[in-house]
Amino acid sequence: LKLLTAARDLKRRKARERNTLFVVEGIRATEELLRSPIRTRGALVDSSLAKGERGRLLLDELKAKVPELAEVSEHDFATAVHTDSPQGVLVIAEIPEWSLADIVVSDGIRLLLLDAVQDPGNAGALVRTAAAFGVAASIALPGTVDLWSAKVVRSAMGSQFRHTVLHAEFGDVSEFMTREQIVLWGSETGAPPLPSRDARPARLALAVGNEGSGLTSAVRTRVERTVGIPTTAAVESLNVAVAAGILLHELYN
Amino acid sequence: LKLLTAARDLKRRKARERNTLFVVEGIRATEELLRSPIRTRGALVDSSLAKGERGRLLLDELKAKVPELAEVSEHDFATAVHTDSPQGVLVIAEIPEWSLADIVVSDGIRLLLLDAVQDPGNAGALVRTAAAFGVAASIALPGTVDLWSAKVVRSAMGSQFRHTVLHAEFGDVSEFMTREQIVLWGSETGAPPLPSRDARPARLALAVGNEGSGLTSAVRTRVERTVGIPTTAAVESLNVAVAAGILLHELYN
Description:
Chain A is of the alpha/beta class. The first copy, chain A, contains 10 helices and 10 strands. Chain A has helices at about 5-10, 15-20, 25-35, 55-65, 75-80, 120-135, 150-155, 170-180, 215-220, 240-250; strands at about 20-25, 40-45, 70, 90-95, 110-115, 135-140, 165, 185, 205-210, 225.
């Protein structure tokens, strides 16, 4: 693998999808990556990594665990990085090939559907929240930012490494939910609050929509119920990740 | 006011603070601004604004409401803007000079303290959430991103226009809380959940900390209690805005 060329190429979503590879940057995310089951292909570092104690330890860990390691000039490194503060380390790793068939369904299951969520910070916070509460999988529907982009990985604090995330067409997800008797609810501004515990289905998927336009019409048509969070009148809506966090917290409590 | 020069200058936090002016960009945020009590100084537009119906309506509204309006070339406009998709409109407005003395304290009051929150997206989501739930004020402590930066305004969906936000030193905030008998709690990863309703103080300020390092030592020393959100073991923490959203939602329910 030509690491420098590959890292540059993987800035494009199409290249990540074609090669099923993604990029992790920064010390903390790389530490998380190396402790996860995700397979790595190679790492690029520049001289800034080994300037701190934590960076030096990470460099040793990379040497032991990553198939290929290259130290490049700070100039070359800067041309390859995807995020603002890569801290001198970039790792190329394999996107896990999870599919709907990998989701183990039983009563109590909750899924999160990202329905055209566009902001990487929001998508990352959603995945992180889903992972934190034990949601079985985060499923990105068309129009959603690539969950394997370096910005989303950073915002999710690497929770993709230990929580099932996948991209799927809504038709396939819809069939899967029907087959597995999973009920679909949608989060919507102004909708009534969650019903009491005994009125909640044993198997539930919660869809959250686009930052500007909410749920897509395909999803809105398919949901059995919309749920929301009562707020005062002055502000009409919450940030999508905050709203989902509140709903998921309630669903698990 | 030389609008183009002023807009460029206001990219710097120091310039915003010295002039008590800030910049709003984008159609929706500008619409919100013009319906709020915030005073405007002038607007810059380029030819792209009037290409859509909503933009044309906004242009008419700007002509009627803003003291000074300049249409500049797309090139000049691009040199003045602060965010990625300004949609052809930028307004310079006055930062409201709110202080601790403007906060009306009574039983039931809740305040949000941002203790060195650095990400503009997180800070904006926090302010938006506080506004949505009726928090009396969002107070940014030193180390926090400028709540009047264009990125924070955008992320907050302009909730600064109708919700009291201010920057203050922690010493002043601490004295204010003592004088007004407001109890300080801090949100911290791994801390116990919120106590039951009857164990919650009538007057409460909730502090949330930095994305990486949590609460500063000054705040941690001063809090009477830390509270958290139980999660599964796999992921150690939630995004700061998601965590605050869950806690504030509980505090208002």
